[in-house]
Amino acid sequence: MYLRILQRHIRRGRLHVHLPDGVYSFGDGEPEAHWFIRDRGTLVRILLDPGLELGETYMNGGWHAGDGGLAPLLEILLRNFSRFGGKISRWFAPLWRLARQWNRIGRSYRNVARHYDLDEWLFRHFLDRDLQYSCAYFATPGMSLEDAQRAKCRHLMGKLLLEPGQRVLDIGSGWGGLALFLAEHAGVHVTGLTLSREQLRVATDRARERGLLGRVEFLLADYREHTGHYDRIVSVGMFEHVGAPYHRRFMQRVSELLLPDGVAVVHTIGRSGPPTATNAWIHRHIFPGGYIPALSELSRALEPESLMICDLESLRLHYAFTLEEWLRRFLACRDAVAARMGERFCRMWEFYLAVCAAAFRWSDLLVFQLQLAHHHQVVPITRDYLYRPVAVSAGERGRRSAPG
Amino acid sequence: MYLRILQRHIRRGRLHVHLPDGVYSFGDGEPEAHWFIRDRGTLVRILLDPGLELGETYMNGGWHAGDGGLAPLLEILLRNFSRFGGKISRWFAPLWRLARQWNRIGRSYRNVARHYDLDEWLFRHFLDRDLQYSCAYFATPGMSLEDAQRAKCRHLMGKLLLEPGQRVLDIGSGWGGLALFLAEHAGVHVTGLTLSREQLRVATDRARERGLLGRVEFLLADYREHTGHYDRIVSVGMFEHVGAPYHRRFMQRVSELLLPDGVAVVHTIGRSGPPTATNAWIHRHIFPGGYIPALSELSRALEPESLMICDLESLRLHYAFTLEEWLRRFLACRDAVAARMGERFCRMWEFYLAVCAAAFRWSDLLVFQLQLAHHHQVVPITRDYLYRPVAVSAGERGRRSAPG
Asked: Which of A138, A227, B114, B387 maximizes the CB count within 10 A of its CB?
């Protein structure tokens, strides 16, 4: 019966399912993938609740992929099953959302601790040297991850229209990479907010090492607690943690914290299709309280505020490239991670990176960069200023000129 | 009493109200405007229902502006009363929408006839030479309207990623300006749809004159009636006429008419704030059945379709510049228009252009350019291709190079 489900759904790509009693092949064309499953019970669990059980069973050693790794297997599963899963999860989305994303401040701290207070050691082993834990910007084909993360910072710096001496708020400052970049390259004063004690410690150490403590400060604070007024606000890879019940509140805080002539840039994972629930496995193991907004949700949260949408860039595939490189780096040091964090953690992390990479390639996931201002006069009326040729002298120095 | 309403609301700018019994001044600062009102009854009518009566009483000669023209007066009224009016109209928005925008195909033809079947002579007197009746793109400051309309066509051409020989559908082709431009500059075959017999006649004549009849055809057809498959779809200034009840249907048709590797660009007036009803006066006299969508409405209509948002440009102020120039040109030939169409028509048209210009400067109105595709691989992953320097040799020839 369950084999018939595979038969009915697999249309794109060729999948060979290896079960104890034999090999069953489905579909046609590219890619081709082998799926080694321990027993029929595991396959049944996956088919009954793929969103949760594909990851659960992988973590527990219930299956593994062929020599090509997880990517071609996940491609086949995602491309042939996404509609099916999407419909079911959409049905339950409103209920799930309320229960799971009721991210009061205390819970937000706990959610963040779960993921970001993990040993810094781990992140140093798969992120770029600057510890940028968000979608990079591959400005030119074949760019290294290091360069693409710097290009992301430069792209954001352009959209922020910074002037020296301005005060910038970075909501969700991570290990401080962007804040340090902006302070160094644009001569601004940056306040970074994080809920992770581990990130706070690392970011503050890095600011001290680079002699930037006078111009960059990091605080352990929630966006709802922090007060002040800023010329610029930037938030990268944080809105995904806000949760649907707090989307309005987040935009309200951005509007309140931003001075009348200010500019804000919000960089967040989004989906091009309709709202749907967070993947159950991701929610359980990786990002508790997280939620990926559709554009209709983002805009509904934004519209009651006096914030104008000055630009919306839709970064497609950049996160797939980023995650694929993270996975490659992670696999390169897999033995060391397994020795320190255990085999089950390793399998969890590998699946997390691989399934997210596949989702950014084959589903409707992308990254939205929203540029916001209180009125028409702040941001130039064409986007040319973002694309003026700059004299890029060896990576880091490619400082974008101020807009006209 | 009604003077106290003005006193309470006017905070920005200084307004002198001239009534038969004297002059009353309110507010402070810039701009300064004089408002000559025939009698107190007219002022009361306006205050009771400003959205409708400001225009009605102007058409009927109930008031006129001082030497500075309508612009400073409308600026003061819009900036000081927009919140108030916005709230009230939002309250009734859902009801109005259903009744007024139930644009079945037959009604759409009649709506269009009301506005666009007006004498071509009129449009020739205030539009640019190419008869582009939509927001221009002021690529550089101080550009002429003629150049800005061509720059708009080039900008759209860039976003459409055209290749010679492709089949392009232009939904709402007007007097044919964009279709002819694309056929001439990109070597594509364009089918333009309009519901206006007058536009069809003029556009077809122009295609014949330029020897393009083999590559451009114009049809009298509704987007719901037309069938076919196109490499590219473009729709400029048409979505505003679709009406909220048909937003989903429009996006569905775009998705169906677009080939799997296709690209679509939808250019529409939008609002940055929350959904609100069409202005009552505009609806009665200018655009029956029209509705300006908020981004949340646009995206909700789009999300169920298999169309990805590849880019969303928010063109702010460009339509203010366009309308201000249209108004200037209109006023330059006001006597001739009055002789042919009558004084009341003249006052209506003047108020229409002036109030829309003011709205694009001082309210949350803007123009959205949405670029859509069925999958990730069609549109380049950075927007550099739109901003590569081109050798612009005397206006028209500045053909943008194909993207990489």
From this structure: A138
